[in-house]
Amino acid sequence: MNRLRIKDLAEEDRPREKFLLKGISSLSDAELLAILIGSGNQTETAVELSRRILKSADDNLNELGKYDLKRLTSNFKGIGEAKAITIIAALELGKRRKISEIPQKRKITGSQDIYQIFYPLLIDLQHEEFWILLLSRSNHVINKIKISQGGVSETAVDVKLILKEAVLSLASGMILVHNHPSGNMRPSRPDDLLTQKIAEGARFLDIVVLDHIIICEKGYYSYGDEGRM
Prior knowledge:
The chain is an alpha+beta fold.
């Protein structure tokens, strides 16, 4: 017995038609994904295939954002390279939209502001990255700069490069940021030593290191909030 195809469904149950009748907000994540992929396979409609893809990611779009081309094409019949690229591109656009909502000159008032800036940048990564956020004397954002990219559990950081970027930007303040793909929010001993080293070097240049934030999927750790800066 053949599976029901999207065109065999009632018109109000087809994702595109549902969108036209009721608006984009009426569609589920699976229906939105089905519009992207367009068609399913011999045994699943696009909606059914989309539900299965989402279920494999625990129905979590952030988790789906971590899927690469190979994982999508290898694990889901009917998802070829073109469809996989479409899915990845759509999720990347969503992430970039979130990033673009943050004004470059916004004022930093606390650790939550920092977390909101870097969460969309770091949350999908399977490797560590180290960033700095450079601030004016009034704590407005001057620039955010990626310093290094490493492996799953660590990344090498050049303190001289960090201080150089701060000096060139005429920054008065600096915030250190990196992610822990493992999900462990607690800083390691190397994290502590690096924080101390950068803070001491910056002090000689009249630059204040205000915080060091460790980003994880379910939260963050702030040296500043813990009274460790």
